[in-house]
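agent> call fold_tool(seq_1)
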Amino acid sequence: MADELVHSEQLSPNFNERTLPINMVVLHYTEMKPVETALARLCDPEAQVSAHYLISEEGEVTRLVPEEKRAWHAGMSYWRGHKDVNSASIGIELDHPGHELGYREFAEAQIDALIPLLARITKQYDIPRANVVGHSDVAPARKVDPGELFPWERLAEYGLCLPKPEKLELGDPFDNDGAFYLALERFGYDITDGHKAVEAFQRRWRPELIDGIVDQHVGAILFQLLLDRDRGIAR
């Protein structure tokens, strides 16, 4: 399929058939350098991993798996009732050293390439903003990517993901940590490992402090997100 947003195609053998309609996008970082190393791994049949797209730090977009196929990018994951995240999602890998090789801000050219690609995908499949997520959101016990420096606010400016709630109610909306965990599960997270789930929530919504501790600030953010969703303004 011709696509002006895609610069090259290097098809991976690592895919199979979807069993669910597409209604999610999962963003990852490669945690490998150089980009050729990541491309080789994503196309290695023995690795059994892949994604639909890889975007280099220079903004080059490579298609690895056709969108109609199920790429193997999310692994054991969960989001809003979906246990087979791979079947329901499009996976986009961002060429980046990750936390292991020197975590840093994402390249401007890379985000400039991601935004139109994401805009086309979310429009084509009518993907809710709340379902544009990071790997850490769908696999909080295992993953931390794309991490606390990912510019979610830039995506939110274009309506491509949920923005961070600006107006927060004062006070503690949840009686105890258990109530917070249940609310976190209602929002979409797997809370099997509660501490890791809170870290993932913080990484996405309060990246300046990631400690896995339930406090009034994260409680207020979660409460507002749920309130906005219940009001139908946080699709």
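agent> call fold_tool(seq_2)
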Amino acid sequence: MSAVEQYARAHIVTDTADSAEDEHRAVPVALRYDPEANPRLVRITLPGPHEWIFARELLEQGLRIPVSSGGVRVWPCGRVQAVMEFHSAQGVAVVQVDSKAVMRFLRRTYMAVTPVAH
């Protein structure tokens, strides 16, 4: 099985931003899937040492309906955006990302297959 990694741009959504410009600045996020480590989990990495690991199913469902598990919440925002909210001891991170980028990532995770041995 091959690992899948995709980068996307997300917007930080928070009520603690210093200005409207800070609130909507784009940040890079990395979406990772390693079926050899655990075929049910995905990783989302935000700038800095911020990484969350949670069920791939949660990410998929969150594109259609609001869902949560542990410190992660995902919900659709309009027709083309999704919001991901991550809770940790350091606080809350809320990012908005294009749904198409997440769908493309999920599609790639389902296409990751085990090579056939001959």
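agent> summarizing second result for user.
The domain at 4-111 is CATH 2.30.31.20 (Transcriptional Co-activator pc4; Chain A). The chain has three helices and eight strands.
agent> awaiting next instruction.
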